Known about the structure:
This protein has helices at residues 40-57, 74-86, 102-105, 110-114, 119-128, 179-188, 202-210; strands at residues 14-17, 23-27, 32-33, 62-68, 89-96, 134-138, 141-147, 160-165, 189-197, 214-219, 227-232. It is an alpha/beta fold.
Amino acid sequence: MGSFVIKATDLKREIITTADGSHSLYVPELDEHYHSYHGSIKESQRVFIDLGLNYVSENHETIAILEVGMGTGLNVLMTALANEGLKKNIRYDAVEAFPLEDELLNQLNYADQLLHPSAKEIFESIHQAPWNDAAQLTDLFTLTKIEAPIEAIDFSPEQYDLIYFDAFAPEVQGELWTSELFAKMYSILKPGGVLSTYCVKGDVKRALQEQGFTIEKHKGPEGGKREVLRGVK
Ligand SMILES: C[S@@+](CC[C@H](N)C(=O)[O-])C[C@H]1O[C@@H](n2cnc3c(N)ncnc32)[C@H](O)[C@@H]1O
């Protein structure tokens, strides 16, 4: 899977507006978007909040989340806002190999689009938080942004309840959709833990199943991808 390995940290990114009005980033060199062009917020809500966070919240009061590919921080923001209703104790580790510049982050319209009174403040806190150190975003939400390639991190086993697997697509970055990396994801999830992702490609499903994940296909975001995926350990 995948045709080349991303090495450049200086990829050019352009801000685009997706179908639900929320911004995303386009990387011309890779011909790849950071989110679904059908709607960044809609995608995050469906794939990671509805099928991941809300599902895991049904039987947990304390939730440890790992995000693979933090990018703009939209999934962190959506999770922190959803938690204002859920009121769980969340530890969120967000891994990013190529952090975005403040100049770009400051132009993103998520806080305006979400119309939530805390959105702006939380989005700013996410990006002001230091790298590689824990930051208290809210009373119930601790964020650690980890600047490293996911492949290079040594995790202790069975520590996460939920993984948001939000890497670039397999066609662009095949090295992140391999059996080897999925074995690592499986080992760091607690039994019953969940991996959510937008990709339902046959090769990806098979690679996840080979590692022991039970695969569930679910309806995608309205107006977007037909199906998205939840893997359960
Ligand atoms: C599809 S975008 C993620 C979008 C992001 N979740 C958001 O809401 O903006 C993929 C992200 O993975 C990051 N990435 C690429 N290679 C990586 C690696 N080896 N380890 C961790 N992150 C990586 C990219 O820089 C990019 O931010």
